[in-house]
Amino acid sequence: MGGLSFDWVGVLSGDPLKWLELGVLTTLYVTLAGSLLATLIAVLLLGLRISQERIVQWPAVAVIEIFRNTPLLVQILFWYFAGFGLLPAGWRAWINDDHSWAMLPGGVGLLTPEFLAATWGLGIFSGVFIAEEIRAGLMAVSPGQREAALSQGFGHWRCLAYILLPQALANSWQPVIGQYLNLMKLSSLATAIGLAEITYQVRQIESYNSHALEAFAVGTLLYLAIGTAMGQVLLRCGPRRGTMVRGGKRHGP
Amino acid sequence: MIEFRDVHKFYDKLHVIRGIDLSIARGEVVVICGPSGSGKSTLIRLVNQLEPLSRGDILVDGQSVASSRGRALRRLRSQIGFVFQQFNLYPHLTVEQNITLALRKVLGVVPEDATVRAVELLDRVGLADKRFAYPAQLSGGQQQRVAIARTLAMRPKILLFDEPTSALDPEMIGEVLAVMRELATSGITMVVVTHEMGFARELADRIVFIDQGVILENDKPVDFFLSPQHPRARQFLRQLLSPLHTAND
């Protein structure tokens, strides 16, 4: 045989298989933790951004612009090498200690500088985008909705909570799903700070037994599988757009 | 019930309401009409502060609108029903939820009572069978009737209508006017901005004609239709009654 031959056993058995399993778990954990953090940050930033007080709007704008317009790789490297160093010495020592309670199933450490920096970096980067997607969805809600709510005696925040945000979320759900999927895929950048996720493990296999083609093929398929599953789940738990179409037509659920 | 005292409204330099004095008694049905851009919609939007006043004041049941803020303003608004030209139903909620939302979240009515009230009102506007439908599944006339039911659910002291039939196809105007007729005879205070002169003639206690932000006529319907004093009112009526034959007059 000529150039192209495959040896899947070299990737899907022994140590390489164990590494891949650990990689998948790490990717899943950092995606989950990052998504939760991104959601929290998005809610906070959105709240500040659409507040009626100028004085809280501009810090939110500053944060959004900084994290939206700089590369995520640089941000992750910054948090890992510079940000971590800025923490009080006591905290750093505590994080670097062994914590058996912070060990997730499968042997992934939650309280490690790599996991924390990756989660934080992914969370803030994606949170900023999600906040802006939802704000765009909010601006697409007709001004009459707010007027109707005000005329019934709703205040600013209740009007947002019950009338404007549900519609904004439905408007922006597709792009928001895209942001969560991006977060999962961008977690591969955390390989640069040594987080042992899928990409890191694939490269380790490659340097261990030179099965580059097989290793990267498996890695790619793993991302594909996780992404497809995640997209389906998010699509199902999102608001149903079908009932909200303006102009009389109603599309399927 | 509603008293306008030297009311002015500016949009930047544009002076759209120029010193309006008008008082509306409890139970009165007042129709406000006038050419497009005359300020009639702005005038009723000032009553519940959808637009802030630039000068003057409006008293609603003795309460100054200009100085109402925060909780007092929200309370005032919850007592003034407003029906919009574009219905503005909440598209993410069912018909029933559209009616009960503010009842529960603004007035604090318990869910069971709110539902009872919604069912009663849907029956009153002839849409009992649409309780679980979404607004997008209804015709324009049905949506406007739901919007009226939503407004009535709050048991308002005053109802304001901002061209409630102008966005409707002609064959749906009747069903909305029928609901409004029933309201007009029920004794509630109503201020209606409309071009429906049939409604005005039959049901209004008074017709206020506005042009360029000032009141030009303030009469009983008989007087307004039979002997309008102001030339602009006469021209307006001519255009409404025979739109094809006024261009060269």
Mean pLDDT of chain B: 92
Q: Sketch the major β-sheet of chain A.
A: 2 strands, antiparallel
Number of strands of chain B: 10
What would you call the structural class of chain B?
A: alpha/beta
- For the largest sheet of chain B, list the strands in their spatial order: 6-7-8-3-9-10
- Rough shape of chain B? globular
Order of helices and strands of chain B: EEEHEEHEHHHEHEHEEHH
Unreliable stretches of chain A: 245-253
Residues in helices of chain A, as a percent range: over 70%
Order of helices and strands of chain A: HHHHEEHHHHH
Figure out the total of helices of chain A. Answer: 9
Largest sheet of chain B: 6 strands, mixed
Provide the spatial order of strands within the biggest beta sheet of chain A. 1-2
Number of helices of chain B: 9
Task: Indicate the multimeric state.
Answer: heterodimer
Low-pLDDT stretches of chain B = none
Backbone CA Rg of chain B: 18 Å
Q: What global shape of chain A is seen? A: globular
SSE-based structural type of chain A: mainly alpha
In short:
The complex is a heterodimer of chains A (253) and B (249). With 253 residues, chain A is mostly helical. Chain A is built from 9 helices and 2 strands, in the order ααααββααααα.
What does this structure look like?
The complex is a heterodimer of chains A (253) and B (249). Chain A has 253 residues and is an all-alpha fold. In chain A, 71% of the residues lie in helices and 2% in strands. Chain A contains 9 helices and 2 strands. Chain A has helices spanning 14-49, 54-68, 72-86, 89-96, 113-139, 143-151, 156-186, 198-209, 212-237, and strands spanning 103-104, 108-109. The longest helix of chain A has 36 residues, at 14-49. The relative contact order of chain A is 0.16. In chain B, the strands form 2 sheets. A 6-stranded mixed β-sheet of chain B has the order 6-7-8-3-9-10, with helices on both faces. In chain B, strands 2-1-4-5 form a 4-stranded antiparallel β-sheet, with helices on one face. The model of chain B has no long low-confidence stretch (mean pLDDT 92). The longest helix of chain B is centred in the last third of the chain and has 15 residues, at 170-184. Chain B has 249 residues and is an alpha/beta fold. Chain B has helices at residues 40-47, 70-78, 95-105, 111-124, 140-153, 170-184, 197-203, 221-226, 231-241, and strands at 2-11, 14-24, 29-33, 55-60, 63-64, 80-83, 158-162, 189-193, 206-211, 214-219. The chains are: A mainly alpha (253), B alpha/beta (249). At the A-B interface, helix 6 and helix 7 of A face helix 2, strand 6 and helix 3 of B.
